[in-house]
Amino acid sequence: MPTQHYRLIGERLAAVRERIAAAAGRAGREPGSVRIVAVTKGHPLEAVEAVLAAGVPDIGENRVEELERKLAAMRDLGGARWHMIGHVQSRKASRAARLAELVHSVDSLRLAAKLSRTGEALGRRVPVLVQINASGEAAKSGFPRAEVQKGIEEVASLPGLRALGLMTMAPLTSDERVLRATFRRTREVLEAASEAGCLEGRELSMGMSNDFEVAVEEGSTMVRLGTTLVGKRPL
Ligand SMILES: *Cc1c(COP(=O)(O)O)cnc(C)c1O
User: How far is the CA of 124 from the centre of ligand 1 (A)?
Assistant: First the structure.
């Protein structure tokens, strides 16, 4: 049973949906074009159960081990779609490819190649997003802006992958201009790659608890929400 803490998820979800709808409206978009990925990293299984019970099937984890552990524990209950949103070390690529419905965080060709090999071995194409370091911060993962177009082409050409779009993380700031510029740049890269025929989808995974409204205004199709939806992560 969800603990008291996680009982608030239903209310929080309603509030988040309203904010998404308002942001979508400001941009002339359909609220239904934005999917919520509930980020349960650091939270126990009860949080995943509460999120599913509230009606959100998309669950995001940033570590392969944690995703694996929770998925194994949940298997009988089912109903969840697992998203890998954090950096994946190459040696864990095969496990990520097997377990995740979508790998958001393809940040190198080396990782892409490993995921592709697993996809080929499984006889399916692993759905992925290419992560772009749109802000240019040194500490951020993702393809640098100058290399991303070529990176997308190379990822998309791998036989064991389906490249469905892009993912980015904005800088940790409340400066709306900085956030907006990061998200807008990412959308422009997506549009260019789409026009070049490189991508099989138009997904834009962008927006977290502190910046998802700006991300939706700038075209996000998947917001990755931890704190504002699931609550503060236990220490
Ligand atoms: C933790 C995490 C999130 C969610 O962060 P919140 O600020 O708690 O919403 C989103 N994306 C990635 C890649 C994360 O690691």
Answer: 28
Name the token pair of 150. 């070529």
Which pLDDT does position 3 carry in this prediction? 59
Instruction: Looking at the CA of residue 208, tell me the nearest atom of ligand 1.
Output: 9
**pLDDT value of position 79:** 84
Distance CA 80, CA 87 (A): 21
Query: Which pTM does this prediction carry?
Result: 0.96
Distance of CA 208 from the midpoint of ligand 1 (Å): 6
| pLDDT tens, residue by residue, 27-62 | 999 999 999 999 999 999 999 999 999 999 999 999
Is 89:106 a contact under the CB 8 Å cutoff? no
Half-sphere exposure of 32 (CA within 13 A, CB side): 0
Residue 72: φ, ψ to 5°: -65, -40
